[in-house]
Amino acid sequence: MLQLTARQWRPFRFEQVFKVERGESLYKQYMQRGDVSYVSASALNNGISDCVDRANRKGNTISLAYDGSIGSTFYQPMPWFASEKVVSIDLINHELNRYIALFLCQVISRQSIKYHYGYKWSVGIRMLRGKVLLPVDAQGEPDYAFMEAYIRERENALLTRYSAFVSAAQSPVGGGVKPLCKTAWRAFPMREIFDAIKRGKRLKTADHEPGSMPYVSSSSMNNGVDAFIGNSKGVRIFGDCLSLANSGSVGSCFYHAYQFVASDHVTHLKRDGLSSFQYLFLATMCVKQFAGKYNFNREITDSRIERENILLPVTSGSKPDFAYMDAFGREMVRVNLSKYLDYLKNRAA
Questions:
Q1: What percent of the chain stands above pLDDT 70?
Q2: pLDDT confidence of 170, banded at 50, 70, 90?
Q3: Quick check: 201 and 246 in contact, CB under 8 A?
Q4: CA distance 224 to 245
Q5: pLDDT at 64 over 70
Q6: Is the pLDDT of residue 165 over 90?
Q7: Which residues contact 348 (CB under 8 A, 6 or more apart)?
Q8: Crossing angle, helix 322-348 and helix 276-290, to 10 degrees?
């Protein structure tokens, strides 16, 4: 495989390589909803924070946030609207494509470590005279052919992994899985479904120690993982279970196949012998039960969990149908991964 360390690299000033254009202000009261991506200074969703009715930048360019989430860099394949907190980037002496852009996004975003809220990546001399490290060809010029080949190779490797994962997730039930609407359901007490229901323990941010263990709090993003820490004493560590946010993003529920430190803002739910697919099914049902019923002003207390029921599919004997949950979970994963795999293959073709 192509290796980054096997290439010669040298620094280039932004103005030597990139054409940089500042975005423009568009106040909320003047926004007209449409299907054009409005790219702001967000580090999430490819920088897209809304959709508007017009574009001010062509597609096949790169967005770079120089304010807010400074250094967030994304490839924008379609025409888009650049807000006043981002710039659009295109190549000066070469035609940009998705593969080159994805390589450049990683290289550019690494420059953000130098900047912060008090020292912004201002558009002007600071950005244009700033330097970016790029692989070079025999003539000492940016090696765009290598950049494209490197990303293509990595993408093909990922496609192979995705294909294997999709095959492994095939449902064991022949002829598909019975739809949810054709399955009998019944409400069960939470204590009847989960063997262990226990809240995490408070750990102040100031007491976090550097480490690599996930710290799960009441976030609805990133599977609830709020940080990575090294604390092992005075904390509660769970694993192979669900976490249910009892405050903050109340009702968010995630499956954790790994060990994690639980904050006092989440409650862990565990039942021995469950597969990941069964846990994912239960997580969805917990969200249905808790997210709409509780909020910031009505948090999920221990006593309230004890009183709650969860609606689940049942066997002919009115017992929780865990076999069906597993089969349904596998089928949903397979169907959605197959769609995603088809999308990736068509895009790479």
A1: 97
A2: low
A3: no
A4: 8
A5: yes
A6: no
A7: 152, 155, 156, 159
A8: 100
How far is residue 44's CA from residue 25's CA, in Å, rounded to a whole number?
A: 20
Structural domain for 253, as ranges? 180-322
144 and 194 together in one domain: no
Whether 122 and 214 share a structural domain: no
249 within some domain = yes
Are 103 and 237 within one domain? no
- How far is the CA of 92 from the CAs of 44, 81, 111, 256, 342, in angstroms? 28, 21, 20, 46, 34
Task: Determine how many CB atoms are found less than 10 A away from the CB of residue 199.
Answer: 19
Cβ atoms of residues 112 and 4 within 8 Å: no
Overall number of domains in the chain: 2
Q: In CATH, what number is assigned to the domain containing residue 280?
A: 3.90.220.20
